[in-house]
Every structure is written in structure tokens, then in C-alpha cells.
């Protein structure tokens, strides 16, 4: 289904020619796409269409049930009267539609992320095996077909089990001994079919590295550290991050640049943006994983405030072959970070409103999605939240204190009742 006639040509506001096809909607992508000024068709689900319009996208939407499926994308385009030859560029900033966009792009002969690169940026087993074969420090990784195979573990604990094509920490477990393996198998019942990635547990403090690559050269990156490693979400960790100062952490930035440059070379990711995670072991960074998209949570916002780095704009520009934007060395006098807000378990009886949240020390942006009557259960993955806030401090120490304080304040301010 198409919501606008495909035959109407639209003039580019800044002279960008061609017809861009986007696969999968990503929150806050619309302003960057509109700024390109070129003709754009966007493949989204029917449930996303209203949000895309509300954000200000007025060009053509093609509606499909599953934009991760190339068959559905191709069929949706055909129903709407499009031919692949009409598109000059195809892309996505959504984790789960990255490969589909590359498949369609290569079929169209359009500018796009190569399919091999897209697969390596998505599949954790293929990605880590490629990097290990090239000599980079990375966890030992293999694939199994069913969790039942863990009854005779393929490697010695501790190890991590996760979906090879997952995102965040959904369906991800650290298994430290036979008892934890048995507990996982018992909790899953018959729901054990994979495939699953099994990788050795890597020690160190988790950092995220985000930036821009053009022509195979890393032109900008920023390093942030998680306050707690995300793998520990099931054990009560909170998804929170602080941006690291390039001067104070000069060695960290040097190591990050070396790791990113070599990793992207191996993955053949030459043009676009990246979101990488690694473990800081004091004397080196160990690769964790890398995506060919902008970061989640409030990563984009914290880097925009800290360095003036607009990663969504850089993503959009790379799709159509525009040069990188303004990449000067601007730095805010403040230090920025974010935290997700979590309530206690139970039926929600009262939630602080957004005005109260924005009034807390250092908060510059925020949202609250939790509502009275909701039932909040055990934390299962790193995207789970009742709200989120972008916070600033005079220095890193003040920022960390503020992040902890607002998390504790929100949790204590939410009123819950027991769930029978």
C-alpha cells in the first residue's frame, strides 16, 4: 500500500539528485532525512505510519507487515507501482532491517551497504569469527542449534548465550557454572530452539564507541562508558552512560580509534556510521560487537550535546553520498550522560510526571512512558524502561552522582501495589 502517487517527482532542496529508499522507521530520523531535500520513499509498518507523519515526513510511505523481510519489501514496492531501477540509494538505520535494505539495494543496483558487510554487522558469530581470524582481541564464539546442547557445554564456563541476530541484551544470559546452566534450561521448558551464539565471558568495563566512517577512514568518534555492564541487566544493572573527555582519556581514545579502524576494515564498512561496544581491560580494549547504525537509548543526544556530533545527520548524508557534515572539535563545557528510569516491581499506582523529572538537578531532556495501572515485572533486557533522561554535570564526578540520584529518586517516587 502506498500513501502517495509514485509518479510525482520532487525537487531536492539542496540539489541532491536521485530517489532514496529507506527500509524500517527509526525514531528521530525524519528531520535528517527531510534535510537531504531529495525524493524519499519509506517502507514502514502500518502501525508506524502515523508516527512517521507526526514527525513531519510528507513524502511517500510504502506499508508492509514486516520490513525485515525482502520478499515483503519487494512485493510492497511492486503493489505501489515502483520498479527497483528507479531507486538510486537504499538504506536503513534500524538494526533488524539492515540486511534487508542491503539485499534490496544490491538488487536495485543502487548505492547501499554491501550485503556481506550488512551480514557481518548483524550476525554476532560471523562478526566475531571474522575479527578473530584477523588477529583482533575478541571472545571465542560459536553457534549451537538448541539450548539443550548446553547440557554438555561447548566451552568452559563462564560464557554468554545470546541470539546471533539479536539486539541489546534480549534473551542474553551469563552462565557461570552447571547450576546456572541447569536453571536456564529449566526456565525455558520446550522453548530452546535456536540458533544461539555461545561466547566466552570477557572481563573489563564496557564502553560504547560511536562515530562516522567515510571512504574507509574514521573521521570522528566518541567514547562513552556504561556505569554498569549491560550484560548484568538481569542482575539489577541500569542502562546508564557518561561521555568520556578526549583529553582526560587520551589513551582510551587512541586505543578506540585503532580498534575501530581495524574492525571496520575487516568488516568492510567504509561509509556510514557505527555503534561499537568494547571492554576496557586497563591495558587494552577487547572488541564486543559493532552495528552499522546510530546508537540506541540517548546515545545520539548525549553526543550531540557534548560534541555537536549529529550522528543521524551523518547517517542520512552517507546514504546519498554527501560529504560528512561539520566535524570540528567543539566540546561543551559540561559533561553529558543518560540513564534509563526504572520503577519497583508491582502494579503502578502513581508515577512522577515529566515536569517533576525535568526539574531534577542537571536534567536537560527526558520522557516518562510508565502509566498508572501498568504492571512492572522483572528486568529482562537493556531497553526496558519507564522513562529516560539526559543529564549534564560540571564534571564527570558530578554527572555520575546526578545519574545515580535521579534513578534512586524516580524509583522511590513511583508508588506500586502488589500484583496477585
Automatic annotation (TrEMBL):
Keyword field: ATP-binding, Ligase, Nucleotide-binding
Signal peptide range: none
Domain annotation ATP-grasp: ranges: 128-320
Highest taxon above the source species: Bacteria
Matching InterPro entries: ATP-dep_AA_Ligase, ATP-grasp, LAL_C2
Name the UniProt record assigns to this protein: ATP-grasp domain-containing protein
